[in-house]
Design goal:
Shape: globular
Distance between the termini: 21 Å
CATH topology of the largest domain: D-amino Acid Aminotransferase, Chain A, domain 1
Helix content: 25-40%
Number of helices: 8
Strand content: 25-35%
CATH superfamily of the largest domain: ATP-grasp fold, B domain
Largest sheet: 7 strands, antiparallel
CATH architecture of the largest domain: 2-Layer Sandwich
Number of domains: 2
CATH class of the largest domain: Alpha Beta
Length: about 300
């Protein structure tokens, strides 16, 4: 385990089998279940930065747990618990690692991953805005002419993307998704994704946050029933904008790694590994943004 000023960058849990190491999460195999541990790693431009962001992993975990509870009437999910005492009760072998796992771990069910990112956009931003400028459409969905960057769309749109192991995910049409995973599953995931997004969007708006877009991941449980997996509606998987500063016509301030990206652009880093370390001020501001998102949406602090 690597820690710097209460920041966990790596986990190494003796006696446990590492199932997968992502940019942010270390996933351990517990037999019929997985343990997802969110570290404080942060990536920008698809490269992991050597400097961690204090509290980031705990914010991602606690926000995901909050949202899994909020949408459980819409669709099954892989989520079992993010409470460390409950997790240890069910898996006593984790007791020795309590101090590392507390607050930043989720116990989840296993499932077969659907190899598609289910993206829902309520506002025109990011790669969607770039695509719209060229074709007046996003992932094959035609949009009205004359829209500005960050404009709210009349209706949220479902714009799938491929899941790439390295580099950027690639936007695809619903027809292409259907070719890859089947028309029936595509329609199911579109319907569920749009319902989760609209439910979350309407709630977040009451808390002063606009969810511009987000991505969901799904797995197939026993009997091939879809279930929501991975993180859910966090600043890493979504664009959260402060509602009181919303002004269409350009980029918006956000509750994510904006400070990190802006800093790396300002020093003209070429976006190839290794990434440079971050200054203390950028780390502090970024950590504060993640914590603010948690407080605004859930009313709780860590």
């Amino acid at each position: 385990m690597t820690m710097t000023s209460e920041t966990i960058l790596e986990t190494s849990l003796a006696g446990l089998k590492l199932f997968k190491k992502g940019k942010v999460r270390d996933v351990y195999d517990l037999g019929q279940r997985l343990l997802i541990v969110a570290t404080d790693r942060i990536s920008a431009f698809d490269v992991v930065i050597p400097t961690g962001i204090p509290s980031k992993g705990a914010v991602l975990t606690q926000l995901s747990a909050f949202w899994f509870g909020k949408i459980k009437g819409i669709t099954p999910s892989h989520f079992i618990s993010a409470e460390i005492e409950e997790i240890i009760l069910q898996h006593p072998e984790l007791k020795a690692h309590r101090s590392v796992l507390a607050g930043r771990s989720m116990l989840v069910r296993k499932g077969k991953v659907v190899p598609i990112e289910c993206v829902v956009r309520g506002y025109l931003s990011g790669s969607g805005w770039k695509e719209y400028q060229k074709s007046q459409s996003v992932c094959g969905v035609k949009l009205p002419v004359g829209l500005k960057e960050s404009d709210q769309l009349q209706q949220p749109i479902f714009t799938p993307a491929t899941k790439e192991e390295s580099g950027h995910d690639i936007n695809i049409s619903q027809e292409e998704m259907a070719r890859r995973v089947g028309a029936e599953l595509t329609k199911k995931l579109e319907t569920v994704s749009l319902e989760i997004y609209t439910t979350a969007r309407d709630y977040a708006r009451t808390k002063g946050i606009l969810i511009a877009d987000t991505k969901f991941e799904f797995g197939l449980a026993d009997g091939d029933a879809p279930m929501l997996i991975d993180e859910l509606l966090t600043p890493d998987s979504s664009r959260f904008w402060p509602a009181d500063q919303y002004k269409p016509g350009g980029p918006q301030p956000s509750f994510d790694k904006q400070f990190v990206r802006d800093y790396l652009e300002s020093i003209r880093w070429d976006k190839t590994p290794p990434a440079p370390p971050l200054p203390e001020e950028i780390v502090r501001k970024t950590s504060e943004k993640y914590l603010q998102a948690l407080k605004q949406l859930t009313g709780k602090t860590l």
